[in-house]
Amino acid sequence: CGRGSSGGWATRDRLYAVMPWFEGDLDSDAFRASLLGHETQHLADLSRFSELEPWELEYRAKLTELWKARDSLPALLAKFASSQSDDKNSPHTYANRRVLSVLRDRLQEQNVTSTQPDLGDVPPPTLRAAAREQLIEDSSQRSSEAGPPAQAER
Q1: How far is it, in rounded angstroms, from Cα 120 to Cα 10?
Q2: How far apart (Å, rounded) are the C-alpha atoms in residues 44 and 64?
Q3: Which residue, 34, 21, 61, is CA-closest to 45?
Q4: End-to-end distance of the chain based on CA atoms, in angstroms?
Q5: Rounded distance between C-alpha atoms, residue 29 and residue 117, angstroms
Q6: Using an 8 Å Cβ cutoff, are 27 and 38 in contact?
Q7: What is the pLDDT of residue 144?
Q8: pLDDT digits (tens, 9 = 90+) for 12-39
Q9: Cα distance between residue 141 and residue 123, in whole Å
Q10: Would you say 57 and 67 are in contact if contact means Cβ atoms under 8 Å apart?
Q11: DSSP per residue over the chain, as a string?
């Protein structure tokens, strides 16, 4: 019906979870990847990279989510593939498109090809490693662009 929901969100100092969304299962892969992984990445990024645009926050959190996902990986990939946009004003759907595109390029550089729009035919360990590598590279680029941290005055 064109509606979506969130299992949680992050502010600069805490995470929030909508527990009915996870059916109360704190041991589930979905909870660990989609709430703890995704929202904790937001928490870290809000502190470390305060100038990120909303789509950039989502992009980085979705890479983390894919890296952490095990059982929920196929569903996440399908969700990302079915909800994409070229509009930066739609941060989640724009980030979905960027994540799938960047991972496809990274995998092709490693001679791993996929014939599926959701990358569902890529071996999960390979896909998770590519997501992790992309996040690390993105963090490194952002850190070097920001320059060294400011020195505290004495």
Answers
A1: 29
A2: 12
A3: 61
A4: 58
A5: 23
A6: no
A7: 84
A8: 676 665 655 556 566 777 768 877 788 8
A9: 27
A10: no
A11: ------SEEE-SS-EEE-GGGGTT-TTSHHIIIIIIIHHHHHHHHHHH-TT--HHHHHHHHHHHHHHH-STTHHHHHHHHHHS--S-TTSHHHHHHHHHHHHHHHHHHHTT----STT-TTS-HHHHHHHHHHHHHHHHHHHHHHH-SPPPPP-
User: Which pLDDT tens digit goes with each residue over 67-118?
Assistant: 999 999 999 999 999 999 999 999 999 999 999 999 999 999 999 999 999 9
Q: What pLDDT, on the 0 to 100 scale, is given for residue 42?
A: 87
What is the spatial distance between Cα 118 and Cα 68, in angstroms, rounded to a whole number? 17
**pTM of structure:** 0.82
Please give the Cα distance from 33 to 154 (Å, whole number).
Answer: 42
pLDDT at 40: 85
